[in-house]
Each structure stands twice: as structure tokens, then as C-alpha cells.
Amino acid sequence: MRSDIREGEKFPDYELADQSGRRRSLSELQGGNPMVLHLSRGGFDPKEHQFVGQLVDVYPEFRNAYTRLALISTDNQLNINEFRDALGATWPFLSDPDRVVQKDLDIEEFTDEPHDPMIPHTFVLEPGLKIFKIYNGYWYWGRPTMAELHVDLRGVFKKIRPDFDLAAPGLREAWERGDRDQFLVDTLEEPIRYTEGKSIGIKR
């Protein structure tokens, strides 16, 4: 792994084709939210199906918690769609058959010459693609459990959300004077929203 890819530093803002062929940058996919990014060996590997299948199961929690999820693999357009469809995944899968990410990050899995994949890694990213946590998944037990991701994301939200604890000093006063910036969330699919105290609104 490149020496500058470590906790506290910014992850590169790669732009690759998604499952529909549309080029998407990681920053576009992330918006203003935390994100979990998985660098995958590809659909040929049953360990990837096992691990990513767990992400499929918990994805409703990601959506409810304003957290993005993305996957990059060296699969071509056809194979990445088959991989995604086989799992029933609904978040973006990015295709990198030219191995731009593998080469740039220096994560070639040289022990698998026939497939030439990336060494699988899972990144927990704060907004702005800032690296909060890195997991090396060359061995399966190096990958995060869903419980570990939950703990990591709790740590991210406690760090970045001024309203994580509504009992924190000054928050009630800010709300009452109409200063809502500290309560805004970026939903990507819809305009910025915040919870309304006196009517039905969006709840975290």
C-alpha cells in the first residue's frame, strides 16, 4: 500500500464507470456523508460474495444512517453487473479493468497471477474522503465485521456531527434561534433536510 494511504489522510478521488457505464467520482458518490468503500477482488471469489453479501444485508441501516457505500473491483462491465446482480446489491459498483486503483495504490495481489486482482481493502471514510479506518482483507479474518463497521461509524459520527448528542451545550439554543446548520444532513437523493421539532419530519 502506498505510504500516504493511512488514517487521517485523504483517499484519492478516483473516477470510474459504475454498473450502468456512467463515470462517477468517489467524492460525487460520497457527497457530504461518511462512506464505506470496499476494494474487491471481484465476482470470481466466493470470499467476496460472503463478505459483500453481509453488506447487502445491512445496507438498509446505511441508508437510514446517512452513510454511503461503494465498491470497486477489477471486473469488466459485464462481470461487475453479474457480481452485483447475484448479490442483490443496490449501491454503486465501480469497474476498474485497467487496474488504475490497483497500480496507483500499489496493492497488486501478486499471489493470484491468473486473476491479477487488488488486495482487498475496506476503508471507513469521513466526509471529504478522509480515511478513518483501514482493513486489509487479504486473509478473510482481516476484513471488518458488520459490528466493527458499526463501531467505526459511530466514532465517525461522534467526531463530525455537532448534534450527535442533543444534550450538548448550546444545541437547544441554536435550534430555538433558528440556526439549523448544525442539524442539516445531506441525503444526496433529495435536497438537504433537517428534523422539524413541531411537525412530522425526517428522523435519524
Structure in words:
The protein has 204 residues and is an alpha/beta fold. It folds into 2 domains: 146 residues, Glutaredoxin; 42 residues, no CATH class. It has a 7-stranded mixed sheet. A hairpin with a 4-residue loop joins strand 1 and strand 2. The C terminus is likely disordered.
How many β-strand stretches? Answer: 7
Q: Helical region count?
A: 6
Estimate the mean pLDDT confidence.
Answer: 89
What shape does the CA trace take? Answer: elongated
Residue fraction in strands:
15-25%
Q: CATH topology of the largest domain, anyone? A: Glutaredoxin
Number of domains: 2
Oligomer: single chain
CATH superfamily of the largest domain: Glutaredoxin
- The amount of helix comes to 25-40%
Largest sheet: 7 strands, mixed
Which regions contain 5 or more consecutive residues with pLDDT less than 50?
190-204
What structural class results from the helix and strand content? alpha/beta
Element-by-element helix/strand order: EEHEHEHEHEEHH
Distance between the termini: 36 Å
Known CATH architecture of the largest domain = 3-Layer(aba) Sandwich
Which strand order spans the largest sheet, edge to edge or round the barrel? Answer: 2-1-5-4-3-6-7
CATH class of the largest domain: Alpha Beta
Key descriptive features of the protein:
204 residues, alpha/beta, Glutaredoxin, 2 domains, 7-stranded mixed sheet, 6 helices, elongated, disordered C terminus
Summarize the topology.
Elements: E1 15-18, E2 23-25, H1 26-30, E3 35-40, H2 46-64, E4 68-73, H3 77-87, E5 93-95, H4 100-105, E6 121-126, E7 130-136, H5 146-160, H6 171-176
Parallel strand pairs: 3-4, 4-5
Antiparallel strand pairs: 1-2, 1-5, 3-6, 6-7
